[in-house]
Design brief:
Transcription Regulator spoIIAA; alpha/beta; five-stranded mixed β-sheet
């Protein structure tokens, strides 16, 4: 089950090791925006480090683009994707980030949670962990 927590500055979505489908993050975000504390300008942290399940060989680019567009329209100031080092996950995250950026959502990919949190807090993260 995908979980989410909301602080004053960040919506954190934790993806389970084996999500039921690719829309788990979108559903969690849509659920979180119903919270009275949700407001535009929050940072979005998607923690998918635990998810190393095999991916479908073909995830339609339109599907990834639509997910990125849906999340981008919700008013987040930035998005950090924290992933496992599995190459397929990096490819999907890079594709998502590209589409999110096209829709105006500043997005970066990390393998280290602390670096992602620092980047979301406004720190400029430069180094091998920032992908």
């Amino acid at each position: 089950m995908t979980t989410w927590t909301l602080s004053k500055q960040t919506l954190r979505v934790v993806v389970p090791p084996e999500p039921a489908d690719g829309n788990v993050v979108v559903r969690a975000v849509r659920e979180a925006i119903e919270d009275p504390d949700f407001g535009p300008g929050l940072a979005l942290l998607i923690d998918a480090r635990a998810n190393e399940s095999p991916m479908s060989p073909e995830i339609p680019m339109d599907e990834v683009r639509n997910r990125a567009a849906s999340i981008s329209r919700l008013g987040f100031r930035s998005c950090a994707l924290v992933i496992s080092p599995v190459a397929a996950r990096r490819g999907l995250a890079t594709t998502f980030a590209k589409f999110a950026e096209e829709h105006g959502l500043r997005t970066s990919i990390f393998e280290d949670l602390a670096r992602a949190e620092a980047w979301l807090a406004g720190s400029q993260v430069i180094g091998p962990e920032a992908i």
